[in-house]
Structure formats: structure tokens, C-alpha cells
Design a protein that fits this description.
elongated; 2 strands; two-stranded parallel sheet; about 325 residues; Serine Threonine Protein Phosphatase 5, Tetratricopeptide repeat; 13 helices; single chain; mainly alpha
Length: about 325
């Protein structure tokens, strides 16, 4: 009916807010008061209380609600942003006019509602098709990103320590969904594997790197990646075999020489470890890590003169590298 009459459906709150000049009024206010008989979840989904609170949040103005009844789950709720009718063309970075202080214990949540029907004029798929989460513009990409400023450096360190595992765990779930849709994409398997390594789940990482290797068997990097995950899982014999295959494909692969040297060192094969670390130093003479590892191998083999020379080189390349002084202490002992 609307289309036949040349009309369009608009959110009621937005229409009334524009007519009343609400944005201009709130911008200059010190406090905003709104109200409703029964404050519940629906109050924040296109109704007056949620709309007014969202506008106030945009300008950093505190807001209070006078209500008859308030459900417990929304009693202390603070809307940070509320958009009743989102347009993809508005995608951008938005910042509050004034920061919003969040007390300890605050839970931040976001609810997205999608209209995937034929009645939505902005639906890019006509006729409508099932849409799932993904990284493409045609996918459902609803993510909430919040930039925060901590009160001090200690809080920042704690936030980073506690928040990163949560983000990685969520990201890996997203990659698994993408892999279901694109199982032959080695890049997705590699990314998922790296996330699993960060989570300390080496066996899951190994499974994804193995799949990636099957998709690109001639890749030195694929063998190296699998070797790295096997090393983390302490499956050193298998890891060594993968590093050797990577080097067969690319003899100049310095990282593979380095990791293979570490495998040999752990296995007590000191001459073999020295050979591999020497290759790292030859291929990457400016690598302080390579020289440091070579110094450690020489020291373990009792070749203290060469250990000191390698340690001095590492120290020259990276002053203050405490590990580079270990061979001197070993010789002195």
C-alpha cells in the first residue's frame, strides 16, 4: 500500500524527534528526563525511553527515567547508542562528544535486528537469501567495537590481559563459520590455526595447518607452519620432519633453520643445532636472535670461545640482550 501511494515507512521516534528539534535541545542540556509506565527490554527498542537515552548518550548528557515499574534487567541500563533504522551508507567511526564513565562490573552488550525480507528496500538480495556471519559486505557483519580509556596504566595492562583471550575465542568461532562456507581456502585455515595457537590449543592448530598443507603441498611456509604447531605440542620428531621438508623446498628459509636448530638442541644433537643456527647467522647476519641461539648452542657444546664471539655479535646488534651474556657466565663457571 505504501509503495502504491509513493510513501515510505519511517520509525516513529525519529519522525517525532525531528519535528520537536530534540537533538538541538539535548545538545545544550545538562540533564535529560524521560519516562514510561513500565520500563523493560522493549523500552529500548524503538520506543521513547530508548530513543531519548540514545540521543542523550550521543552528546554525553546524563539521562534519568521516571517510571512506574522497572524490570531488574534494565534498571541500571545505560544506552550508549540506539539507532532504530540503520542505513549501511552511514558506516563510519563515531565518537562521543564526552566520554561515558563505566563503573567496575559493567557489562556491555549490543542487540542487532535485521530485516532480511523483500519489504526492506535496502536489502541487497532480491529475492531474499539466507545470510550468515562473514567478512564480506554481503554477509551479516554485525560487530560492536568500543574504544575505552582506562584510568591508569595498571588498569590498561589488566584490560589487555583479560580482554585478548575473549576476543581471540570469538574470532576463532567466526573463522570456523567461514571455513564451513569456504573449506578450500588455505588462508582461512592458517588464520584459524594461529588463533588456536594463541589460545594454547595446539592440536586444533595442527589440524588446520595440516588441511592448509594438503591444499598447498609445495609450500615451504605450509610445512614450516605445521612444524611450528607440532613444536608447541612437543611432537618434536614430527616437527623436525616438517622443517626439513620446508628447507628442501626453500634452503634459504632462515626461520625453518632456526626452529630446526631448536629441535636439535632440545634433542641434545648439538652439532646439528650449531649447523642450523650457523645457517641463520649466514642468511640473516643482522639477526640478534640468530646469533644468540648460536651462542647458546656453542656454550652447551663447551665451545666457549666461539660462544663468546657469537654472544658479542648478538649484543652489538641488540644492546642490553641479557641472554647474550650467558656464555661468558658458563665459561667462568
Amino acid at each position: 500500500m505504501l509503495a502504491a501511494l509513493g510513501g515510505k515507512l519511517v520509525p516513529g521516534f525519529d519522525l517525532v524527534a525531528d519535528e520537536l528539534g530534540l537533538f538541538d535541545a539535548v545538545e545544550g542540556a545538562g540533564l535529560v528526563i524521560t519516562g514510561e509506565g513500565h520500563l523493560d527490554q522493549q523500552s529500548f527498542e524503538g520506543k521513547v525511553v530508548g530513543g531519548v537515552a540514545g540521543v542523550a548518550a550521543e552528546f554525553g548528557v546524563p539521562v534519568g527515567a521516571i517510571v512506574g515499574i522497572a524490570d531488574d534487567d534494565v534498571r541500571d541500563r545505560i544506552p550508549l547508542i540506539a539507532i532504530a533504522d540503520w542505513d549501511f551508507r552511514w558506516q563510519n567511526v563515531y565518537r562521543y562528544a564526552a566520554p561515558v564513565a563505566l563503573p567496575m562490573g559493567t557489562t556491555i552488550s549490543m542487540r542487532y535486528t535485521y530485516d532480511n525480507s523483500a519489504a526492506n528496500p535496502r536489502n541487497p538480495q532480491q529475492p531474499p537469501a539466507r545470510t550468515r556471519w562473514g567478512q564480506r559486505s554481503s554477509d551479516e557483519m554485525g560487530d560492536l567495537w568500543v574504544q575505552v580509556l582506562t584510568r591508569d596504566d595498571d588498569d590498561l595492562a589488566r584490560l589487555n590481559r583479560d580482554f585478548r583471550p575473549k576476543v581471540v575465542a570469538e574470532d576463532v568461532q567466526g573463522y570456523e563459520v567461514e571455513i564451513e562456507k569456504h573449506p578450500d581456502d588455505p588462508g582461512l585455515h592458517d588464520d584459524a590455526a594461529l588463533l588456536y595457537l594463541e589460545l594454547g590449543r595446539a592440536e586444533k592448530a595442527i589440524a588446520h595447518f595440516e588441511t592448509s598443507l594438503k591444499l598447498k603441498p609445495g609450500s615451504a611456509a605450509a610445512h614450516y607452519n605445521l612444524g611450528t604447531a607440532l613444536t608447541v605440542a612437543r611432537r618434536l620428531n614430527e616437527a623436525g620432519a616438517e622443517y626439513l621438508e620446508a628447507l628442501r623446498i626453500d634452503p634459504s628459509y632462515a626461520a625453518a633453520h632456526n626452529n630446526l636448530g631448536s629441535v636439535y638442541l632440545a634433542d641434545g644433537r648439538l652439532d646439528a643445532a650449531i649447523h642450523e643456527f650457523s645457517e641463520v647467522a649466514r642468511l640473516q647476519p643482522e639477526s640478534a636472535v640468530g646469533w644468540k641461539n648460536l651462542a647458546a648452542a656453542y656454550a652447551m657444546a663447551g665451545q666457549f670461545g666461539r660462544a663468546v664471539e657469537a654472544a658479542d655479535t648478538a649484543l652489538r646488534l641488540k644492546p642490553g640482550n641479557g641472554c647474550a651474556t650467558a656464555p661468558r657466565a658458563s665459561r667462568a663457571a
